[in-house]
Amino acid sequence: MNFIKKHFPALGLGFLVLSATVLSFTRISGTTAKAPLTQKCLIVSDIHFNPFYGTTVGDSVLKKKLENASFAEWKQYFEGFAPQMAINSNLLFKDANYGVLQSALFNMKKRLPDPAFILIAGDFIWHGATPADSVLKKKCILFIAGLLKEYFPNALIIPAMGNNDTYGQDYALQDSKFLNDFASAWEPNLPGPSADSLKARGYYTAETGNLRLVVINTASLNLGSNYKPQADAMLKWLDNNLANANGKNVWILMHIPPGINAFNKKNFWNVASSDAFVHTIVKHAASVKLIIGSHVHLNDFKVVYDNARMPKPVALMRIVPSICSNHGNNPSFEVAEFNTATGNIVNETNWYLNLATIPKDKETQQLTWTDTLNTAKSLEMKGLSAVDFSKLIDHIKADKTGQMIKHYADFYDVGTKADSAIFINHATYMNYLKADSLREK
Question: Which residues belong to the signal peptide in this entry (predicted)?
Answer without folding.
Answer: none
